[in-house]
Amino acid sequence: MSQREWIEKDFYKELGVSADATPDEIKKAYRRLARDNHPDAKPGDNRAEERFKAVSEAHAVLSDPAKRREYDETRKLFAGGGFGRGGFQPGAGGGFSQNFDINDIFGGGAGGAGDGGLGDLLGGLFNRGGGPRGAASRPRRGADVETETTLGFREAAQGVTVPLRMTSPAPCTTCHGSGAKPGTSPRTCPNCNGAGVVSRNQGAFGFSEPCDECRGTGSLIDDPCVDCRGTGVQNRTRTITVRIPPGVGDGQRIRLAGQGEAGLRGAPSGDLFVTVHVSQDKVFGRNGDDLTLVLPVSYAELVLGTTVSVPTLDGRVGVKVPPGTADGRILRVRGRGVPKRSGGAGDLLVTVKVAVPPKLDDNAVQALQRYQEAEKLSGFDPRAGWAGA
């Protein structure tokens, strides 16, 4: 989004937060509004879709510390009314003519000129030496975009490919992002030779100012694309296939380079950041790269020992319970945990837990009583040394 538009939009108001809101407050407000107005939640509701676009646009700026600082500084610069929406306001100071158009500062205007940006103007104002600066003509990179997805526990552990449906600025499908009508191309501005700025000397100083012909973009579009009005960008709903790597954790952000908001006039796109939420599993837990589970066993199995089949992410494996195993002991199965990015996998940690039968028949009760007597005769005391006993 161009800084010219920042003057006319109140992103804090869009999200319903104050100008000194914390990043966490901004994030929470965006999530709530995006969830309530998402096209998937309200299909066919144009007002909700426009609201979704507006809050996404606001969040893209306010969630980025550098962009938010630039946004705040730009609004403060023009808060005194020095520039009106149509042009220069007399008496506001400065040295511009009354025919000066604010679009000339920001690189907008008819014919789909790109976004040179206030930063480019100020950065090249005192260009001692007088040479034009090519950087001023570079179209601005698209904004980063954030979205969320929820995965099942096993999907997150093993990795999965998911489709994400999102509405955001994307390259125009008609002109493929160039801004020019199909069959034509932007041409290099002859006045600045594509630099976007022209230089003039005044005494000991060399000043650079935006080129009047191309308004700082370095190129001219004689026949703009009718679908995107020369910007090279359209708002559209698209589906992106995202590969989630194995072992992703709850709350982790995944960066997809070049999948964010499209840049104007063929400039590089921003990045897409996907925050992953992982749902709980009925069997497995997780501790870093290790999987955890609780294995119910009988008292006899702990005393006598046994081998039990337990689940893993890719099948089942036999776990040996040694004779005399204590309740709560953790048995480790190496290499059957969560896959690691560096290769290999964590371990499976199996905690044994005695399951007590709620009711026994007469035979079982009599057998248990005989065992109890035999246990006492053997000298075993489960509370020996416990609590001063």
Question: What is the string of helix and strand elements?
Answer: HHHHHHHEHEEEEEEEEEEHEEEEH
User: What's the β-strand tally?
Assistant: 15
CATH class type of the largest domain: Mainly Beta
Rounded to the nearest angstrom, the distance between the terminal CA atoms is: 76 Å
Instruction: Catalogue the unreliable spans.
Output: 80-137
Tally of helical segments: 10
Q: Would you tell me the overall average pLDDT?
A: 79
Q: Architecture of the largest domain, according to CATH?
A: Sandwich
Structural class: alpha+beta
Q: Given the C-alpha coordinates, what overall shape results?
A: elongated
**Named CATH topology of the largest domain:** HSP40/DNAj peptide-binding domain
Quaternary state of this entry equals single chain
Tell me the radius of gyration. Answer: 33 Å
Structure overview:
By secondary structure, the chain is α+β, with helices and mostly antiparallel strands. The chain folds into 3 domains: 100 residues, Helix Hairpins; 176 residues, HSP40/DNAj peptide-binding domain, CATH 2.60.260; 104 residues, HSP40/DNAj peptide-binding domain. A hairpin with a 2-residue loop joins β4 and β5. About 15% of the residues have low confidence. Belongs to the DnaJ family. Its main location: cytoplasm. It holds the Pfam family DnaJ_CXXCXGXG. It is found in: Cytoplasm.
